[in-house]
Predict the 3D structure of the following.
Amino acid sequence: MNNREDTSNGGKSEKNDASGGKYEDNNLGKKCGWESGPEAAHHAHFLRAVLDLLVEKAVFQGTDRSSKVVEWVEPSELQQRLQLDLGDDGVTQGDLLRHLDQVVRYSVKTGHPYFINQLFSSLDVYGLVGQWVTDALNPSVYTYEVSPVFTLMEIKVLSAMADLVGYKEHDGLFCPGGSISNMYGMLLARYHHCPDVKKRGLHGLGHQLVVLTSADSHYSLLKSAMTLGLGADNLLPVDVDEAGRMDVGHLRQRIKSAREEGAVPFMVCATAGTTVLGAYDPLDAVAEVCGDESLWLHVDAAWGGGALLSSRHKHKLLGIHRADSVTWNPHKLLASPQQCSVFLTSHPGLLDACNSASANYLFQKDKFYDTSYDVGDKHLQCGRRVDVLKFWTMWKAKGTTGLEKHVERVFEMSQLFADKIRFREGFKLLLEPECTNVCFWYEPPSLRTKRAHPEYNKLLNAVAPKIKERMVKTGSMMITYQPLRGQPNFFRLVLQNSQVNEHDINYFIAQIEHLGRDL
Amino acid sequence: MNNREDTSNGGKSEKNDASGGKYEDNNLGKKCGWESGPEAAHHAHFLRAVLDLLVEKAVFQGTDRSSKVVEWVEPSELQQRLQLDLGDDGVTQGDLLRHLDQVVRYSVKTGHPYFINQLFSSLDVYGLVGQWVTDALNPSVYTYEVSPVFTLMEIKVLSAMADLVGYKEHDGLFCPGGSISNMYGMLLARYHHCPDVKKRGLHGLGHQLVVLTSADSHYSLLKSAMTLGLGADNLLPVDVDEAGRMDVGHLRQRIKSAREEGAVPFMVCATAGTTVLGAYDPLDAVAEVCGDESLWLHVDAAWGGGALLSSRHKHKLLGIHRADSVTWNPHKLLASPQQCSVFLTSHPGLLDACNSASANYLFQKDKFYDTSYDVGDKHLQCGRRVDVLKFWTMWKAKGTTGLEKHVERVFEMSQLFADKIRFREGFKLLLEPECTNVCFWYEPPSLRTKRAHPEYNKLLNAVAPKIKERMVKTGSMMITYQPLRGQPNFFRLVLQNSQVNEHDINYFIAQIEHLGRDL
C-alpha cells in the first residue's frame, strides 16, 4: 500500500481514540512502507480500528431503532464541529479516527428502518460486503485485461436482468445512476433514428426532433433533452390519468399534433414506477403506439423495475419486453447499495455503434486474448467504478427467491400502511398505491374544522414541511413531502427496506400524529 | 440491516471456509434480523470473516512484491472457475466467502507496485478507509438534508482544489470520471455561448458550432462532441509538436479557417498531461488565444493536474487559472481510489443555470434550512455516490505537504526510469518525459541488426504485444503499449504509486529484457 510519502503522525502522540481506547497511536505511521513489519502492523491496526468503528456505529447502531436517524445540526454549526479544513501538515491516525467518528455521527443513517425519505435505503450485509471487496481491489472496468472478473460478472448480471425483462437478445451497461442511464436511452434512440448525427451533429438536420414522455416522468429526461442538444421545449409532456399513469390517447394525439407542426418524434419514454406517485405507465398500450408510429420505446424502470422479481407484481410491467431500452436501478427497490444502475437494450451492437471512439491506446486490437471482452468503448465513461459486485453478492447470497421475497415484503408493508391510514382520522390518501409509494396528507386537528376555509390549501401546504422539520430536528424518522400539480404538500412514504415491519408502520403513523397534533 | 428476506444458509452447514477455518457457518443467517442477538452476531461474524480475507489477501498480499499482479485465466476458463451463475436459491455464507475469495484471487491487483498499466494505481490506506466509511453510510449527495457531512466536505475540497488552480471565485462538482467531467466542460461552454440551446436545442441555431482540441487530447472530447449533438466532425484537431504539445500557431490558424468556412468556434480544450505522452499544452499561450478570440478555455487536467500540488512541477500548468473550466481527477496522479473526479469552473452560478431542472419533489424551497446547500440541481446525475470522503481522508491524513511529497516522488521515479534506459542497449525513449509517462521502445537483440530492414517497423510493432502477453501470463508486471501516429507499438510506463522505488525500476527494466530477449 502506498503511504511512503505519508506525513501522518507528525510527531504527535495519542493515547485514546474514538474507538474506545483499543487503538494506540505509536508514531510508526510517519514513514510507512507496507512490506516492513511494524509499519504494516501499524496500518493494519488503523484499518481494524476504523472497521470496529464502522461495524459498531454505522452498521449496528446506525440501523438500531433506538438510535436517531439523524443528529441534525445547521450547516454553519456543523462546519465548525467537523473541522474539515485541510492544512499543510497531516493529522495523526488517532485524530483521523476521531474525525471519521464525527463523519459517521453526523451523517444521516440511510440504513435505518425509519429512513423512508428517498428511493434508496437499507443496509444489506451482502451489499456492504460487495462494496468493501470492490474498494479493496480498486478496479476500473473497461478492458478484460484489467478487470477480468468484473467484466464477466457484468455480462452475467446484465444477462440475468435481461431475462427478467423478457429480452430474447440484449446488450447493456452499468451507469452512474438512473439519470445517466435515461440519457443513454435518449442517445441511443437518437442514433437509431439518425445515425449521421454522431458524425455531423444536429446542425443542418432539417427537422426538429422531439421526445414524448409523461408529465410525471423523472426530471432526468428533461436534463437529457437539454444535454443532448434537443432542448427542453422538445420534450413534450403527455397527460397522466388520476393515478399518474400516461394517458395513451393523449400520447397518440400529441404525436399527431407534433407531426402536424413539422416536428419529428423519434422516442417515447414510459415510466414503470414514477418518482412521486409510483405509477406504472401502461407499457403494453404504449408499446402498441410506438409500434404503429415507428418510435423508440424507452422504459424508465429505475424505481419500479424491481417488481419484475415478483410473480405477484410483475404484471405491472406487462409489455416491458417490447421496449427498445430500459433503465433499471437495483439500488432502488432491490436495496442494493448506491450506486447500481443498469441500462438494457434489445438492440445488440447499437451501443457500440453509437458511442465508440476506438481509442487505440486502450482498446488495442493486437492483444493476445479475445478483445470482444473489452467492453469499455460502448460507454461514455472511460475509467469506471465497478458497481456490479455488490448486487451480484446479494443475488448470489439470497437467490432469486430471496430477492422476490424482499420485493413482496416491501409491497406488503406499504399496502399495510395504506390500509391503516385509509380511514384514520386526520389522514387522507391521495390515491391507492401501485408501487411502494404511499402518498397522503396529514391534517392536524385544528384544520379539520377549516375545510371550507378559503385559505385551507395554503394552511395544509404548510403542515408537511413543519412536521418534517420536527422529525429531522428530533431525528425520529425521515419521510419526504412535495406538492404536485397545484395540490398542497403531501407526504410520500416509500419503502425499499424489507426490515420495516408492522410495528414500524404503526410508529410512522404515531410519529406524524404526535409531531403534527398542535399545528 | 436489511436481511429479513435473506435466504442464505438454506439448511446447509459448513465447517471450513476461505479465510482459513476461523469462520464457522452456524445456520443462523436463514432469517436474520439485525436487532436480535444471534442473527446479528452471525452477520457480524460474516462481516469480519470477509474483512479478514480482504486485509490479508487484497490489501497485504495484493500489494506484496513477491505476489503476482494477476493470475491470468482465459475468459471462457475463468467463467467456469468463478461460478457466477445466479440461481433461485441462495448460497451459504461459507460458500459466499469462498466465491469472494475467488473474486479477489482472479482480480488484477491494481494496488501492486508492479501494476503500472493505467492512469490509476496504488492502494492507499486512508483512501481505502474513506471508501469503507462511505459504503457503511451508503449516502447519496444531492440535498443537505440527506448528506449534511458530505455536502460540506465537497464544498471544502472543491474550494481547496480551486485555490490550487488559482481561481479567485469558483464553482464545481464531483463527476463519475474524467470523461463526464470533460463533457460538463463542453456543455457549460455551449451554454455560455448560446444559452438558448438549453430551451430550444441546436436545431435552427443557424450556425455550426465547433470545438478545437489537440490531436493528442483524450477521446472523451470526441465522445462529448458526439453526445452533445455537435458531431464528431466538429471537433477540430489541432496539431501537436514533437513533444505532443498543442501547436498554438496551428490553433490560431485552425480558428481562422473554421470561421472562414462559416463555422463558429466556441471552445478550446487544452490538455495538462496527455494520456499517452504525458504532454502539457502551453496553457498560458492557449489562454492568450482564447482571450483574443473570445473562446471558452477548458483544461483537461484529469491526469496531470496533480502536479499543482508540487512547487517543483506546478509551472507545467502555468496559466491554468485563466481557464474557464478544469477537469482534475484526484484518482489519477494523487492516487485516490477510483473514482474521484472533479470539475471546476471560474463562473459561479453557471452550472446551475445550465443544468437546473428545479424538480420540486427533491429541491423543495419551503424547507426549514438554507436550501443553497442543496447542490444537486447543477448536476446531471440525481442520486450520486459520495466520492469526496476518500480523498478528504487522504488529504487530512497526509496534509498538503504529504500530497506534494507523493507527487514529487512519482515524478522523480519516472525520471529515474528514463535516465536508466536513455542510453541502455535495446531501449529507446520516444521523448523526454514531462509527466510521469515514460514512452519507449524495447528492441530485442535479433532486431538490432535489422534496423535497415524494410519490415523493421512491422517487426518492432509486434514486440510490445508479445512481451505484454508474457508479462500477463506470468503475472510478473503490467505495463501498457500503444501505437501513435504511425509509429510502431511502444511501451508507456506510468507512475502514480509512490511506493515504487529504485529497486522496482530496475526490476521493470530487467523484466522487459528477460521477456523480450528471444523475440
Observations:
- The mean pLDDT of chain B is 92.
- Residues 396-516 of chain B form a domain with the Aspartate Aminotransferase, domain 1 fold (CATH 3.90.1150.170).
